[in-house]
Amino acid sequence: MKIGSISFSFSWSSALQALVVCALGAGLNALEPPFDSSGIATFGVGAAVYASLRFSPFLSVPIALIISLPMWLSEGSIVGKESLTLLPIVLSFFGYDKSLRQVIKVGAGFWSIVFLPVLLLEHSLYDSDNVNMLFSGVLVTWVSGVFGLVTGHFAYLAIYGLKRQTSNKSERISLHFLLGYFFAGCFFVASMAVIYLSVSLFQHQQEQQIHSYMKQRVKVLEFQLSNFMRHHQNAIISTAQVLSNAVSENSVERTTAANLQIVASHNPEFLTFLVANESGDITHAYPPSMLEKARKNGLPNVSYRPYFYEVMQSGAPFLSNVFQGRGFGNDPIVALSAPILDSNGVPRGIVEGSLSLKSFNAIDDLSLGGFSMLIEDQKGEVIYASDALAMQPLTKAPFYSCEPKCGVEVNGKTQGKTWLRFTENLSFANWKVSYYFDKRLLQALMSSYLLKDLLLLLALSAFGTFTGYVVAKMVGAPIRRLIRYIADFEPNQKNGNKAPQRALHIQELSSLSDEFTSLETRLLGAFDELKKAREIEQELNKELNVLNQSLEQRIEEKTEHLALALKEAEAANVAKTQFLANMSHEIRTPMNGIIGSCDLMLDNALPEHIAARAKTISRSATNLLIILDSILDWSKIESGKMPCDIQRCDIRELLQASCELYRYTAQIKGYDIALNISNNVPEILNIDAGKIAQVVNNLLSNATKFTNDGEVSVNVSYAHQGLKVSVIDTGIGIASDKLHLIFEKFEQADASTTRHFGGTGLGLAISKGLIELLGGELYVESELGKGTTFTFHIPATVSQGDIPERRSALLSLPRNIRVLLAEDNDINADIVMEMLKSENIKCLRTKNGQDAVNAEKKHDFDVVLMDCQMPIMDGHTASSLIRKEGRNKDDIKIIALTANAFIEDKNACLAAGMNAHLSKPIRKQVLFDCIARELASV
């Protein structure tokens, strides 16, 4: 359908989406604000913004009005409600089906430039008495609009915007703008959530403190008022009792006058006292002039007063409600009276005291500022009220429709304000005392805290924008340089421009540049090799002619050359082992960068295809490391540098762990790994557990690899201080003429096996070398198509003592630890610091041992991560100096992070004063476990 220049389409899918957006937005707008403010804190505007970008104005405008309905039903700024309602509507008309920049310009410009001044003007009319409330209210409403714009736009881009089709040409935006916008938006939303939660918790805490104070204070007031009234009632009762004991008329006169004067001097809160006979006639008064005044006013009789006839009828003391005094004065008073009894206990008159309501000022003055007290009698009339409540005595106290189950907050009855109120009934009288606090004072108290947090939110948003710009520049600049370099590349120019380099670069982009440079080098090299090959071909043709002329002479020369080459090969074979061992350090260093980078990337929320590639890189690097370790193991065996480490070991636990490692692979193929251990096998043996586990794992790996059905079993027995282990499978088997090859290095029974199943051909060679190193023997029995049995015997003595305790649960990293990293390689340093940063661990890096020693003397560190090979001063020397001269030399933990993986390297680290040794590449969890374990041993 098309109306004017705007068209729209209808479908049940769109209707369902619109219904969901309406329900979500209205529900979010109906939520209670997280804190009290003069502004509008709402969260449903984002749904309306999403609708304005997703649907045409004919549908999005009604959606925006429906979503804003709960907001209009609540209290708050009228201009703020209008602004939040019009934001998605304006965005719908001017931003629908428009570019990303247009949406931001329309939304941000309309919201900040047009309505922000209007909001400021409206709040200045109502909150001019408190600047904090004014600006915090404006900012709360503004933040609600920005939050709605950002979340709605982000939701639209994530759900629909990136895949939408448009008749216009594809929109292109700069990386600076895109990352700046997304960083600013994410910083804003995250900071807003934290700050709103902080403000909500702070306000809740403040309210709870006020509630607690009011609850305690109203109980104290009840206690004070009850004691106050009880004290004055007792004074009247004591006076009545004294008068009841007077025996003669003269005695009564003297006693009455004296006692009224005494009780008045001790109880100045009473305005007047009177004594009346059984007829209600006033016989005595204090001050004495009050009696003459009452007679002149024609009110010498009080028989009609409740404080008289109630006492005369009941013979008990009486406390009146508040009433207007007459005769003795016109002040609002409360009367306390008690009977004067004759010898038979019959009332023959009363004693009455008029208590001034101003007497409660002293109790009220003990309250903190902003808190007010209200005392009302059983008829609901005001006895006393604080000035802030603006209630006069004898007026009706406010009655709320929610009585008697009102909450803490009440409003509408007292000056049209919202009050916090706690009430308590007096135990001495049928009165009620209420304690009030103006909630606007709490809001004013909160506005200062809220304004600071909102200003912090704006600062964090600005920081997010700046961060996005910096990150975009870091990513975009090398990409643009590489694009220019590729555009200028000419294969025929050997001396062209070199790829530009920068001191600070991103690893992945740098790797891309390196790969292109490598490709360029290979391409140029291919041209050179082709040219050289042609020249060599011509030379070979010439040499062939010469060779044909002197074939016998050349054969003798070649024979001599072959003999010399054989000697050189034997010398190279001897040097090879030492070469491989020395290369371990250089290979493990870049491997640490690859594996560590993958681990750090996988810690983040990556797109699925990028995460899959990162996992592929990690697995490939791990496989490469396994191959490297295999080659190094063989190098150690050949060079005689593979040591033995005989210790007590639970053989059953070791074998069960090895079987469990390959059980899953076996079960996928439809069979299980059976472990059969004879009863005569001791629980604890003295063996090299690491090498035995490596051999068993190699044999089980081959067994599960070459067995597709049937079974794999491990049989274990012990006799004559020797351990026998057999790994039996029903796999493809080995031909008898190939059995002598399988224990050779880089050999397998069949070349096709390598292509089909994979493998380096070193596993069995290493296993055989390890078993022979332990003084044992490894042999094989196999039949093609029926299976293979590998068996090894090793000497193993029985160990005395209990079974070693299992390792306890993994320790956790302590909080607020400080780490010093000594590492000269920038890539490895970045990897380790990123690992530590992911756990919020503070880290300082130095590039050589001398700097590490100086840093340790200046600062307190818990852990030092020390590389061994560094310029100026190596890690061993630095560790020794720290242990001798360090600031925290006795308690600090030093952990070696080095590519030197041999046992002699580990011993050298420990001898230099280090606590632990970790060989590169470093796994994040292994590093954290080592740190936690060393710190727990303090």
Spell out the blueprint of helices and strands.
Layout: E1 2-3, E2 6-7, H1 12-30, H2 45-54, H3 57-73, H4 78-95, H5 100-126, H6 131-159, H7 175-244, H8 249-266, E3 270-277, E4 282-286, H9 289-296, H10 306-314, E5 318-319, E6 323-324, E7 332-341, E8 347-356, H11 361-364, E9 371-376, E10 382-385, E11 409-411, E12 418-425, E13 432-438, H12 439-488, H13 507-549, H14 551-603, H15 608-639, E14 647-650, H16 651-669, E15 673-677, E16 684-687, H17 689-706, E17 712-719, E18 722-729, H18 751-757, H19 763-773, E19 777-783, E20 787-795, E21 797-798, E22 818-822, H20 826-837, E23 842-846, H21 849-858, E24 863-866, H22 875-885, E25 893-898, H23 903-911, E26 916-919, H24 924-936
Parallel strand pairs: 15-17, 22-23, 22-24, 24-25, 25-26
Antiparallel strand pairs: 1-2, 3-4, 3-8, 5-7, 6-7, 7-8, 9-10, 9-13, 11-12, 12-13, 14-16, 16-21, 17-18, 18-20, 19-20
Helix pairs in contact: 1-2, 1-3, 2-3, 2-4, 2-6, 3-4, 4-5, 4-6, 5-6, 6-7, 6-12, 7-8, 7-12, 14-15, 14-20, 15-19, 16-17, 17-19, 21-22
Structural summary, described in words:
It is found in: Cell membrane. The modification 4-aspartylphosphate is found at residue 867. One of its GO terms (cellular component) is plasma membrane. Its EC number is 2.7.13.3. With 938 residues, the chain is of the alpha+beta class. Among the domains are: 13-163, Arp2/3 complex 21 kDa subunit ARPC3, CATH 1.10.1760; 213-439, PAS domain (Beta-Lactamase, 2-Layer Sandwich), CATH 3.30.450.20; 644-798, Histidine kinase-like ATPase, C-terminal domain (Heat Shock Protein 90); 818-936, Response regulator (Rossmann fold, 3-Layer(aba) Sandwich), CATH 3.40.50. Strands 3, 4, 5, 6, 7 and 8 form a 6-stranded antiparallel beta sheet that branches. Helix 4 packs antiparallel against helix 5 and helix 6 (131-159) packs across helix 7. The chain is elongated and about 165 Å long. The two termini are 77 Å apart. The relative contact order is 0.05.
